[in-house]
Amino acid sequence: MRIIATCALVFLCILGQPSQAFDTRATAALVVDYDTGTILLEKNADKELPPASMSKLMTLNMLFEALQEGRLGLNSKFRVSTKAWQMGGSKMFVKEGDSIAVEDLIRGIIIQSGNDACVVVAEGLAGSEAEFANRMTKRARKLGMENSVFANSTGWPHPDHRMTAHDLVTLATRLIRDFPEYYPYFAEPSFEWADIKQANRNPLLQMDVGADGLKTGHTEEAGYGLVGSAIQDGRRVIFVVMGLNSTSERAQESERMLSWAFREFSQETLFAKDQIISVADVWLGAADSVGLVPQSELSILVPYSNRDEVQASVVYQGPIEAPIKAGDEVAQLNITIPGLSDQTYPLVAADNVDRGGFLKRMIASAQLLSEKVLETAASNAQ
Questions:
Q1: CA distance 95 to 99
Q2: Among the options 81, 113, 254, 278, which is catalytic?
Q3: Full-prediction pTM beyond 0.85?
Q4: Residue 167 has pLDDT above 70, yes or no
Q5: Active site annotation includes 56
């Protein structure tokens, strides 16, 4: 039997101005709250598009994995090939035959968006850029980036080189979460190599918006894009914009999007860890019910305009048969918020419930038999 217990969650105090739907000029866009995973804005987020230099994030992911696994260190060096030296577009200005430390190459890719630095890394890790691109695509699949295909390490225009806004947010989330020791490179304002100092191309780093990453991109085919992240008051937002028309439009749209994401949503704590939300019926137990609690503090992101319309329902298959151990996942909490996707959280048993004694089991069995007899009689009567 599937049992639903509904409990209304009402936020009586509505603060701020009503949130407005965000209308972006980007071809594709996605805005996600980092901690909760709540999608705040989505436009063509699964459309496969040329990512330009934003796909360099995958090159960095491959390099960070190698560092984290101990296959190389920040002081390890890769030699510059003729191909790397001859790369056009944005450059770190490496010289053929030089050996360059991994840490310098990281800065050359992140800050200077160096196509030459990417090729140096690709050849250093995989022997050739073609093999490296193949590995990038395979690794992307394992990381859940189902719609990403890499033809090179740089984002250089190629008909098969494609990513989605969704996959870019997945990748950005991984870089922030899994590589905290390397993520600070994304916030560095400038880097000098070969006596040429270049500023970080991320326009948000120049603004007072809490930005600390990640990567811009531009080609004639792709337009102007940005994978960005910022923290305000302890809350992080990750976003992607693709297909904008100019550097100024990219900067303005990104700043406007971040401002909206932080201004129009609030983080609300619904329940503390181990706080009993509801109770579930127990079958053949020493107790007739068990409390249901969240595994950890349960917080959600709520639009200011809809804070009085949050609804919650507890769902479980029951009655739940004893014995039950405290901490067993036995139910789920479904949260519905107008304007956002529904959210589901596991609920666990608050206490142990042992099996009932012989007499209690006999009584329960008799009750069940009686109910089935009545159901059969009612069915036959129809």
A1: 9
A2: 113
A3: no
A4: yes
A5: yes
